[in-house]
Amino acid sequence: MQLGFKNIKNNFKVDNNHLIAIDPTQRAWIEVNGNAISNNVRQIRSSLKSKCKFMAVVKADGYGHDAKFVSEYAIRGGADQLGVATLQEGIYLRSEGIKIPILILGNVYTKKDLSICFKNNLMPTISSMRECLICNNIGKKYKKNFYLHLKIDTGMSRLGFSIDEFINIFDAINSFHNISIDGIYSHLATADEDEYLNKEIVIHIYKS
């Protein structure tokens, strides 16, 4: 059965097949307060050092709350950057007039997709020397630096340089003339399980 919903109370469509009027707010709904989002961002920012940037992650359509809506109010609250999961999500926000830096947290690795990323002023997550070389060549072609983030794998095993690899090639990556490393990050595999977190890995990264 196909049902059409409008997310407005007492304003709903009728299923012509079954002649049943269904109010989408009858059982459950979401009401999002944009000012609350802005205030939450301000509260978090107040705990950060002055030079520390704040990235609001708005992937999966702002976690179901409307990516454009959440992004705009997060920016009003002081968000410096946005994070999305896919290239398509980043392009959508650009098409809606969002201008601040946007990081794509997912895997963007082909020359075609990285070129689209560059042309839309989006920052990819980079996990290999091959991807760095592609980005550098794209930047060189357009005579403009390609901003990106490097990711280190600390146990999640999705994306990222291995620790030893990263240590060995970081200087080479940093020497490229047409890329700018805007950030370096990781995704801790057991962030909520301190007793199982491999602290030796983290210590090794910091010492290196």
Features of the shown structure:
208 residues, alpha/beta, TIM Barrel, 3 domains, 6-stranded parallel β-sheet, two-stranded antiparallel ribbon, globular
Describe the structure.
The chain has 3 domains: 1-31, no CATH class; 33-107, no CATH class; 121-208, Alpha-Beta Barrel (TIM Barrel). A 6-stranded parallel beta sheet has the order 3-4-5-6-7-8. Strands 1-2 form a two-stranded antiparallel sheet. The protein is built from 8 helices and 8 strands. With 208 residues, it is of the alpha/beta class. It has helices at residues 34-45, 59-64, 67-76, 87-95, 111-119, 129-142, 163-174, 199-207; strands at residues 14-15, 20-21, 55-57, 81-84, 102-107, 123-126, 146-152, 179-186. It starts with 13 loop residues before the first strand and ends with a helix. The protein is globular.
* Discrete helix count: 8
CATH architecture of the largest domain: Alpha-Beta Barrel
CATH fold call of the largest domain: TIM Barrel
Q: Low-confidence segments, ≥5 residues, pLDDT <50? A: 1-14
Helix content: 25-40%
Query: What is the element string, with H for helices and E for strands?
Result: EEHEHHEHEHEHEHEH
CATH class of the largest domain: Alpha Beta
Outline the biggest β-sheet: 6 strands, parallel
- Count of domain modules: 3
The number of distinct β-strands equals: 8
Strand order of the largest sheet: 3-4-5-6-7-8
